[in-house]
Amino acid sequence: MPAATLSITYDRWPPADRALWEAACQPGDFLECGPASHLRERSRRTLIFGYSRWLRFVERTAPAALAEAPAARITPERLKAYTAEQSLTLSPSTVWNDIKAVYDMIRFMVPEQDWTWIKKIKARLEHRARAVTHQVPLVDSGLLCTATASPYTCGWNSAIAVRRLAHSKVVLVSQAIPSAAFSIAQ
Fold first, then answer.
1. pLDDT tens digits for 56-74?
2. Does 4 map to a domain?
3. Range of the domain at 180
4. Last residue in a domain, options 131, 152, 174
5. Residue 121 in contact with residue 86, Cβ under 8 Å?
6. 51 plus 143 within the same structural domain
7. Domain tally for the chain?
8. pTM, 2 dp
């Protein structure tokens, strides 16, 4: 049995989505260009990929919704179900990136609507993605400094570690890690 397809190709997007995206990318002067016209091709491809994953989810779970306007199709319930399903198999940063793509796409395609509610979800997912355990080894004359972060044990602070290099040069290394989780092991 073949693996499930995680996204749909651009040519299979609903016509309304394609038309809105193409209008959003229209070049022109600063008064007539589309809201996504400033994006580079790589950024556009990234957004298309993430949004295609969202459309595939909708196609699998509520196929009739593909006939709806994109703004009507993105509901809090659907986005919550999408995020929950993705969280079962994908890393927190992938889930965040895909929701970021959905948010960016819809705000470019339907800029007149308020998408603050998606932005808040995206921000929570970003925090979760950044809070996943980080280990930053710093080696200094036999000392190993490791910073471990857990999103469930402490809040985020900025921690600065000093690392001495050859010839007595000092370099500051900064990483967003919880200062309470910073430890030095020998």
1. 999 999 999 999 999 999 9
2. no
3. 138-185
4. 131
5. no
6. no
7. 2
8. 0.68
